[in-house]
Amino acid sequence: MHELSITEHLLDYCIREAERQNASKIRVIRLCIGQLNGLVPDCIQVYLDMLSEGTIAEGARIEAEFPPVKVRCRDCGRAGEITPHHLSCPVCGSLRLEILSGKEFYIKSMEVDIDGDKSTASDYGLE
Ligand SMILES: [Zn+2]
Predict the structure, then answer these.
(1) Spacing, Cα 72 to ligand 1 middle (Å)
(2) Number of domains in the chain
(3) CA of 73 to the centre of ligand 1 (A)
(4) Which structural domain range is residue 81 located in?
(5) Do 48 and 91 reside in the same domain of the chain?
(6) Fewer C-beta within 10 Å: the chain N or C terminus?
(7) Are residues 14 and 38 in the same domain?
(8) CATH number at residue 36
(9) 66 Cα–ligand 1 center, Å
(10) Span 45-62, average pLDDT
C-alpha cells in the first residue's frame, strides 16, 4: 500500500468531516491500522505534514492503534490472535489460516477545535 495516496484520502476525508462540524483546526487524527496492511504511521505523519500545509489540518498529529490479527485455522478450526511474525495456528501450528481481521484501516477518532473549544469527534470509518 502507498502511504502517500492513503494520506491524501485521509486528509481530504478529515478536512471534510471537520468542516462539516465547523471545526477550525484538526489537532489529532487517531487511526486504527491492521498489522497486516503494513502501513507505517511515521510515514503517514510525514506526508500529512507535507500535504496539510495551509489547511485546517496543518500541524495535526497522527496517533495509531494496531488491533491484533485474528485468524481461523482451516485445519483444526480454532480461532485466535497471532502476531504478523508468526503466521501459524497458535493451537496446532498449521499454516492454513483464514484471516478474520488485521487489514483494517480507519479513523478511530479526531480531535478538533470548534470555535476555540476542544472537542472530540469519534467513530469515523474510512475505506
Ligand atoms: Zn490449527
Answers:
(1) 8
(2) 2
(3) 5
(4) 68-101
(5) no
(6) C
(7) yes
(8) 3.30.2320.50
(9) 24
(10) 97
Distance 75 CA to ligand 1 centre (A): 5
Q: What pTM does this model have?
A: 0.81
Residues 95 and 107 occupy one common structural domain? no
Confidence of residue 119 (pLDDT cuts 50, 70, 90): low
> If you measure from the C-alpha of residue 102 to the centroid of ligand 1, how many angstroms do you get, rounded to a whole number?
18
Distance between Cα 81 and ligand 1 center (Å): 12
Q: Is residue 127 part of a domain?
A: no
Residues 79 and 110 in one domain: no
Burial degree of 89 (CB within 10 A; 0-12, 13-18, 19+):
buried
